[in-house]
Amino acid sequence: MPETHVAWTLCETRSVLVASPDYLQRRGAPADPQALAGHDCLGYRRAGGVLSWRFEPAGGGAQVSVPTRGCFAANNSEALREAAIGGLGLAVLSDFTAQRALLDGLLVPVLPDWRPVGLFGDSLCAIRPYSPTVPKAVQVFVAWLREALKEGFPLPR
To answer: Where is the LysR substrate-binding domain (predicted)?
Structure first.
């Protein structure tokens, strides 16, 4: 974030590994992160990005890095969500991108005992240009967002 801006944290977020029920029926569910080598992994591409995913045990512990490959990549999480819903492979998505599809059964969590790390941030923020005073409307709107998002983005397990 540029030094000329200020960020207000609205809520915590997390990443989740997901796939469509159809994909898992065709290819099976991986038993652990290392098994992802035999799966189509839908990649979130950034400039100079590494083609691997990192995971840590949900209960804490050492991280593992897993090289990934797949038939589709994008730099847009909504595009990755739609590709996963279409059965193209496994995707790491932010909870706020995956929530509706998970609740509707279009996607299911994969490797729930492992947490993807490092691909997306761990908080959702409101960002504004810095100024010594904050307009009342901005203060009220951010307070409303914090209240609306205080529970974060609950996901089915």
So the answer is: 7-149
Q: Which strands sit side by side in the sheet containing 64-67, from one edge to the other?
A: 64-67, 52-57, 114-117
**Model confidence, pTM:** 0.83
Buried/exposed code over 79-108 (b: 16+ C-beta within 10 A; e: otherwise): ebbbbbbebbbbbbbbbbbbbebbeeebbb
- Residue 65 near residue 53, CB atoms below 8 Å: yes
* Cβ atoms of 48 and 111 closer than 8 Å: no
Tell me the per-residue pLDDT of 36-81, one tens digit each, with 9 for 90 and over.
999 999 988 765 565 789 999 988 889 999 999 888 999 999 999 9
The CATH number of the domain covering residues in 14-120? 3.40.190.290
Instruction: Enumerate the domain spans of the chain.
Output: 14-120
